[in-house]
Amino acid sequence: xxxxxxxxxxxxxxxxxxxxxxxxxxxxxxxxxxxxxxxxxxxxxxxxxxxxxxxxxxxxxxxxxxxxxxxxxxxxxxxxxxxxxxxxxxxxxxxxxxxxxxxxxxxxxxxxxxxxxxxxxxxxxxxxxxxxxxxxxxxxxxxxxxxxxxxxxxxxxxxxxxxxxxxxxxxxxxxxxxxxxxxxxxxxxxxxxxxxxxxxxxxxxxxxxxxxxxxxxxxxxxxxxxxxxxxxxxxxxxxxxxxxxxxxxxxxxxxxxxxxxxxxxxxxxxxxxxxxxxxxxxxxxxxxxxxx
Length: 292
Ligand code: KIV
Fold this sequence. Notes:
CATH topology of the largest domain: TIM Barrel
Number of domains: 2
CATH superfamily of the largest domain: Phosphoenolpyruvate-binding domains
CATH class of the largest domain: Alpha Beta
CATH architecture of the largest domain: Alpha-Beta Barrel
Largest sheet: 8 strands, parallel, barrel
Strand content: 5-15%
Number of helices: 12
Distance between the termini: 43 Å
Shape: elongated
Bound molecules: 3-methyl-2-oxobutanoic acid
Number of strands: 8
Strand order of the largest sheet: 1-2-3-4-5-6-7-8
Radius of gyration: 25 Å
Order of helices and strands: HEHEHHEHEHEHHEHEEHHH
């Protein structure tokens, strides 16, 4: 345990232009506890849980129940980091009332302190509604994985007119009242222009070094999976190899009889052992304590 203070939305907002914000995804108690201990300012319980934990192709596979389940596991680790719950696909697209209710579930049942949702101008009514319910909202522009059917996973804002639109969308999100904006899969020049144009921190992923912070997926940053690692996702460790090595040793130990060892084994007292192994019949007045 450390005496680090709990990070709040106000702390995050105040970091605009200051020390870069560190955000990591996490999806359960152990990954959240590690992210917090490593000094993450923000833990995003991302809908990327669908891909990196649950083995789905796209984030469309997860609904609010799944996100609540994982957010609550993260919250039970009591991280110092601000917990942001990701609103999944179709949880904020239908009506404002549904968007508020689903955001409220991530807060009340999941223990999140803010929510994130993808998209720009067309999501403004939903963002406004959630903000009116006094739930802080983080925006997400650029490559938005929930738009895969219409956008694919292509880098956004490479053409000048698209880049200008992105800056305008970011300004509208800022004016509406989001407390931070994730910029995913955009050229560095565009991310820097957005960062200069808005009053709230920008947090980049595949957006270069000019943003107010960075976010990485836990399993990418630690090298925990054997899937595709995007160009921007530096592996700061190779935990998958370390885990395979450890479990291969475990398997060998089971097979050659060296596991479990004497020290890893429970023993009876000599007296109880002798009585247990003796030929004597057990006494007939024995009644299991749970029957009494
Ligand atoms: O779900 C997620 O992991 C995200 C990050 C990539 C920003 O939205």
